[in-house]
Amino acid sequence: MKKLVLTGAAGRLGSYLREPLSRMSDELVSSDIAEDLGQLYPGERYQKADIAQYDQMFDLLDGADVVVHFGALVDEVPFEEMLGPNFLGAYNVWEAAYQRGLKRVVYASSIHAVGMYLRSDFIGTDAPHRPDTFYGLAKCFAEDLGRMYWEKRQLEAVCLRILSCARVTNTRALGTWLSYDDLIQLVTRAVDTPTTGFSIVYGVSNNDRAPVDNSKASFLGYRPKDNAEQFAERILKQAQPADIKGLSDTRHGGPFAAVDLGESCMIQMNIVDDKKEN
Amino acid sequence: MKKLVLTGAAGRLGSYLREPLSRMSDELVSSDIAEDLGQLYPGERYQKADIAQYDQMFDLLDGADVVVHFGALVDEVPFEEMLGPNFLGAYNVWEAAYQRGLKRVVYASSIHAVGMYLRSDFIGTDAPHRPDTFYGLAKCFAEDLGRMYWEKRQLEAVCLRILSCARVTNTRALGTWLSYDDLIQLVTRAVDTPTTGFSIVYGVSNNDRAPVDNSKASFLGYRPKDNAEQFAERILKQAQPADIKGLSDTRHGGPFAAVDLGESCMIQMNIVDDKKEN
Amino acid sequence: MKKLVLTGAAGRLGSYLREPLSRMSDELVSSDIAEDLGQLYPGERYQKADIAQYDQMFDLLDGADVVVHFGALVDEVPFEEMLGPNFLGAYNVWEAAYQRGLKRVVYASSIHAVGMYLRSDFIGTDAPHRPDTFYGLAKCFAEDLGRMYWEKRQLEAVCLRILSCARVTNTRALGTWLSYDDLIQLVTRAVDTPTTGFSIVYGVSNNDRAPVDNSKASFLGYRPKDNAEQFAERILKQAQPADIKGLSDTRHGGPFAAVDLGESCMIQMNIVDDKKEN
Amino acid sequence: MKKLVLTGAAGRLGSYLREPLSRMSDELVSSDIAEDLGQLYPGERYQKADIAQYDQMFDLLDGADVVVHFGALVDEVPFEEMLGPNFLGAYNVWEAAYQRGLKRVVYASSIHAVGMYLRSDFIGTDAPHRPDTFYGLAKCFAEDLGRMYWEKRQLEAVCLRILSCARVTNTRALGTWLSYDDLIQLVTRAVDTPTTGFSIVYGVSNNDRAPVDNSKASFLGYRPKDNAEQFAERILKQAQPADIKGLSDTRHGGPFAAVDLGESCMIQMNIVDDKKEN
Amino acid sequence: MKKLVLTGAAGRLGSYLREPLSRMSDELVSSDIAEDLGQLYPGERYQKADIAQYDQMFDLLDGADVVVHFGALVDEVPFEEMLGPNFLGAYNVWEAAYQRGLKRVVYASSIHAVGMYLRSDFIGTDAPHRPDTFYGLAKCFAEDLGRMYWEKRQLEAVCLRILSCARVTNTRALGTWLSYDDLIQLVTRAVDTPTTGFSIVYGVSNNDRAPVDNSKASFLGYRPKDNAEQFAERILKQAQPADIKGLSDTRHGGPFAAVDLGESCMIQMNIVDDKKEN
Amino acid sequence: MKKLVLTGAAGRLGSYLREPLSRMSDELVSSDIAEDLGQLYPGERYQKADIAQYDQMFDLLDGADVVVHFGALVDEVPFEEMLGPNFLGAYNVWEAAYQRGLKRVVYASSIHAVGMYLRSDFIGTDAPHRPDTFYGLAKCFAEDLGRMYWEKRQLEAVCLRILSCARVTNTRALGTWLSYDDLIQLVTRAVDTPTTGFSIVYGVSNNDRAPVDNSKASFLGYRPKDNAEQFAERILKQAQPADIKGLSDTRHGGPFAAVDLGESCMIQMNIVDDKKEN
């Protein structure tokens, strides 16, 4: 592969992907709205660009083979704020990718596209959308857009529905945890699988309590290695009693399923940068 | 019912709905971006409003029980043009309906939300989205939004996936035709059914060749009466040879499934106002 | 057919079945816990018997070909009261039928065996049980028992899951109504179909708004003729606003889905003998 | 349509198709192994040909648009006898149709391709094969071949799984009857539908007791008009007691499901030419 | 957890659960109809009680959080004998649990609730009931009851459909074995998972030949460790020829599927206490 | 087991099976059309026989318990050439096995029976046939025949749908590889499982990228050990760019899905004898 592009490279997840992606290609162009990323990896170049601006995406993707699109607002916010980065951002990336002749978009989708399903529904990758927030609705939009660009324009896409890629701090995460190593494997497979068409795969580790079904994406070869059960004893001991009928404790989306539309949820999720902790 | 609101009242389909809706409620407020509608029906009032403007929707829905949302661009256009009326328009109507305390949104969705399925797939109302155009993608967006407003905010919605509500002029329409009388029954049921939650129903007449499955929406009681088979002999005799592998002749979306994204399709569809013809 | 037996012959539904069943067989033995039924039909004989007493069932079924088992408490009551007539009664009828060598049991089951499903779920006859009351739980018990007697002992059974066989007095009944004529057709088919194995079929008329799916029972040839839509305009006009999230207005079981376990529900249902009214 | 070809034109079903097919095309070439057909219809020509001989099929299909392939042995016989007309015959017709550039094969398949399913299974057109005889196995072979010629070579096919196109003389036929008028409608739709790809449809009338599910073939517009229930009272009165566990009375294939492989079944089926009787 | 209650504590399986359950809670109350259990574990208390007596269950569950209900007759017996311990016992436990405000019932269900399915059907936890005995019918009753108490009264339940928790002595057990360690894990997960709603999970080890599908219960995190394949060579060598059409060798229920209703099956199953043997 | 018969013993796969099969039975009769096999294993005997000749199969199977039928042409060839060995050969083996009273046929079927499915369809063992070649069509024929012999004549069968049992030389094989050790386990389970009825199982190793679903065959206990991911880095590095819309790169059948019917495909597949290489 000659050229890979990564959006959202300054974000928490993006920062873990820069090094492995730089090794998969002759050139990695990392991009974000930050001024710079500090130290770069061999073969990596930084290009500041705003995903909400089509022209900047069109420039960014020049000559690329695959774009790994992780740039987005990563919390629930009012629809008007979500519109630019998460809705238009997705359109801009796919349209520019098509105009530039890329082969594939690898997209950071989310469990929140289907977050209103009961956690005891072992949902597969073909369950109809049931978003839990505007954040999730933007993921639905991008997935539907991606499928259409594949069916109408032969631009491949792999949508990674990430569950919880963060330190395990609550009982829900015993099922939803995606370790950073497994994230890297997931993105690697999404890039290196020879043909993918339009595919959806859940981003979750090999947790005993993993609540979703990746079997339809089996051909991608994503086989996670980590297991949150190592944290179970500690987490269960500290856990508050569950609200057995509450949305937060019974739906795949967790706190996002319970939050009011447009209100921030991340503080509640207790997501921290834990590169050195887990 | 005290107050109904109809958007898109000046449009082709909206114009057929004004009279029956005016009889279902104490007051019908018809709305569009036109200056006026000419002669009004008893109980009908006209209020000019742009669906792409949230404030105007918020004003329009004051005191309403149900909004019948038919306002939209009804052809394929570039994404940037679609964004205001079809994407933001849907958000504005649902958000205003929620803020104003309405009970339900009745929405003119479309077969183009699932237009890339093979015509020989007898798709039901729970088939995952496969849009064929930006036009269809906007319908996917609105349906997902509507489901979320129901699940998070208890605002009901009935999405009418209309197939072809127009004069029967080609072989595809032998299956996809929705007569105006059946359209009226469909909207009537969507309004008068006591509880609907979030529901999807295909808008198609009782055609011998109807290619979609409404059984999951059976409780709504939509039972169409008309049948396009009355036109079959004439239409089949005039028909050009089909392209048996082409998208237009094999997918539910018809010409929309074959058109380039962003390019107009309606001329090709030969849709005309045929109030007096069929 | 030489001998048919009907239990619950003095009940509201049973009383409608006596005449047609008497014409389908050389001898009809009608049974109940009443002292007598008054005037009998040609070929009909009355035998008082308590379904909760095995010996009386064993006597009753002597020489019979088929038993039509409609005897039961038909309201929600505490479990201890339900036990005798509805649980033991079912066991007694099936066990006696087996010991007496009958060919088939035709059983008055109920929608309340699956009453907790959403009304907008178009449930089929193979949906797993979700009872809404002890009344419904007894129907689940009898259906499972009946399937076992078929699979282990080659005693056929047809379970008629009746929805609402009563005057149409509320919006739910626009979907759930079973007319008396259609009840008779239903029982007739359950008796005259040459082989049935173990089968379940919903007892509902050909209502526009019928919310259940009988397609798997198609071979039985039950094709109802009546349609509650004739009452729709009147009923909808009088209807109270629905509780769009309440169990009573959103589940198949209606008021049974909302009632406390063990508390009477029939008064609320407003079921009356309406032989001459509808 | 310029030229249609009918094989098996001298057979019982073929003889009913000659007249309507002759009216659908400029030229109908009827074919069989008989010396002649007697009186021909306007536009009809007879060409003697053996389906088991590829060269004769290649000659026959010269210039044709569609072939309606009804030629076959229509009883259970040993495999060696079935091989020529029913296996090789199907291959010869499809291969010649491809080599001659035809658009479509309309094929007389049979319920016996799936005859081992329980009659109470409401099987659809996508149920995996479960043949009941070598006769049924040949139908499975031809259907799989036809699907492959569509997927590899863009030759369309419609497989008509006929249930019982004959006089109603037994209880099974109350469900399985296909009237001659409905047969003609079925073949007409299979010929005139503009695009069919590879499709399967059950050939059965609109019987109350029809035991199979044609919904997936809905787009073909086959809507039968006749109903065997008109014969029910007479047939049920004369019927012998069913064998409730026997293959013949419980499987879709009826007597074919019970017969020893390779042994004739037609006499048992009591199939007669009843052009003037039903 | 403050207080756990175990019924059937003197039984074969119950005796394995006392120690691990005593470590999961401040207090374990073990109960049975035996006079005493001998030596108790730290934190364990014994309370004699008869599950067939509601008052005794009501006393027993005072102050408990969760009841692990393993008390039952564990063989096929006539219905009248099964009624008290297995049917009324289940009702008594659930009703008392509800009246006492418990959070959850963990219930020893059984494969015999679905024992009539073909062993080659890889049945999931949502397969409709097909009991093979009165023993299995009682499990069906309790599962349906448990679902209802969840849906109507918010009392959670986890039903453990145990296959064969006993020494591996026959070829069926190569698939159905549940080791004692895996039983303990299974019960532990059923108790410690924060929210379960109403759930069903098969109790079977990680056998190569395991014939059932637990994927829908994935969120519970039950991941068995043992594998009966270690016994395969020895068992297969000693095995009698199978009866390839017999119920015992082809159905999930094994000998229970073949036994006459009401007749003991356990001797035939060769179930022994094997604490020290496997 | 007293006597096993292996057809195709001189073939590439057959040659790997001789030694393990010889150890599973008192006598192994290996058969092929070669003159001899060279050195035989203890308990092995060679009998030259042509599968296309019924009499030779009838002789061969005298006194056998199970036949492992691997004899066939293993490339795409014109239908006329396929007919004898692959179609008639299958019939001859099953018919002779029935006439000789064998218990079971173990059959080398192939992914090419369903080779036209999209590789991203995680097809199970109950997916309807979609053959990609005459070679695959013969597998469909044999599977349907085998199911019929089970349902009509109680002759068991296990059909092994082998994906790619050969050296891993291309990206497709990263998903489709079946190692020789896993082949042996697969055949062993197919022979030693006590009852199988008619079963289908995919022959594929435990590859990360395995694209098919064996869960329905779980009871057979086939649990492969090898994983082609060991070859992934090397293979992916050397790979040519994929044709993302081409049949060869997107369908389960690989090159067979793209080849013209009747044209050889094996050279393209680069299948070599690699006993000592992988």
From TrEMBL, chains A, B, C, D, E, F:
<feature type="domain" description="NAD-dependent epimerase/dehydratase">
    <location>
        <begin position="5"/>
        <end position="162"/>
    </location>
</feature>
<keyword id="KW-0560">Oxidoreductase</keyword>
<keyword id="KW-0520">NAD</keyword>
<protein>
    <submittedName>
        <fullName>3-beta hydroxysteroid dehydrogenase</fullName>
    </submittedName>
</protein>
<dbReference type="InterPro" id="IPR001509">
    <property type="entry name" value="Epimerase_deHydtase"/>
</dbReference>
<comment type="similarity">
    <text>Belongs to the NAD(P)-dependent epimerase/dehydratase family.</text>
</comment>
<dbReference type="GO" id="GO:0016491">
    <property type="term" value="F:oxidoreductase activity"/>
</dbReference>
<dbReference type="Pfam" id="PF01370">
    <property type="entry name" value="Epimerase"/>
</dbReference>
<dbReference type="InterPro" id="IPR036291">
    <property type="entry name" value="NAD(P)-bd_dom_sf"/>
</dbReference>
